[in-house]
Amino acid sequence: MKLAQGILFTEKQIAARVAELAEQIASDYAGKRLVLCAVLKGSIPFLADLMRRLPGDVRIALTEMKSQVDGLHAKILFTSSLELSGEHVLIVEDIVDTGITLDYLIKHMEAERAPASIKVACFLDKVSARKLDVPIHYRGFTVPDKFIVGYGLDFQERYRNLPYLTWVEPE
Ligand code: IMP
Ligand code: MG
Q: What contacts 24+ positions apart, CB below 8 Å, involve 19-24?
């Protein structure tokens, strides 16, 4: 696979969209304390951009997940120590594809961590690949069914550092 020539979203488009999402989130959570739970590693740039645009009482939790290759299961590899019980949690994801990873995380969090509420902010939504119906409260962009890279998203751990969004395609 090689990097495509085209650009899906530029740095400027990304920044503008993050600002819009942050405004909506800030208004929805006004007066409440919020925990942003970022799913590593893809959501790092989105988390960093979003959190700096949220005023008020915001804390950060991190979790790393593995989306299984059998196409059916996901698992949690790592969870940071912040207590989520009774907190308003906003899951911060890079992209929702089949929905399997997010579905697992939400169910696990509801069962094991007892937060006051769980909502989802995902930067990209590959809606045509969805297998499980998952709630998305804040969505950056809907994307085509390509393998997207950049702005945190990787292909075999590469290209996360690109400041824009593009895709990889067969050589
Ligand atoms: P899902 O469980 O199929 O929804 O996949 C979720 C995870 O797979 C995402 O959080 C990403 O880490 C990864 N993923 C899915 N599609 C892409 C893509 O197009 N580019 C990079 N990573 C992707
Ligand atoms: Mg991810």
A: 19/53, 21/50, 21/121, 21/138, 21/140, 22/50, 22/53, 22/54, 23/53, 24/138
Reported as a pLDDT band with limits 50, 70 and 90, residue 69 is low
Write down the residue that tokens 């949220």 correspond to. 54
Q: What is the per-residue pLDDT across 152-162, written as a single tens digit (0 to 9) for each? A: 999 999 999 99
Count of domains for the chain: 1
Q: Do 70 and 100 form a contact (C-beta atoms < 8 A)?
A: no
Distance in angstroms (rounded) separating the CA atoms of residues 87 and 68: 29
Provide the CATH number for the domain around residue 57.
Answer: 3.40.50.2020
Count the Cβ atoms, other than its own, within 10 Å of residue 130: 14
Q: Is the pTM of this model over 0.90?
A: yes
Q: Which of 49, 94, 97, 125 is catalytic?
A: 97
Which domain, by its residues, includes 70?
11-143
CA 36 to ligand 2 centroid distance, Å: 14
Q: How far is the CA of 154 from the centre of ligand 1 (A)?
A: 9
How far, in Å, CA of 98 to CA of 135, rounded? Answer: 12
Question: Would you give the distance in Å from CA 74 to the centre of its chain?
Answer: 15
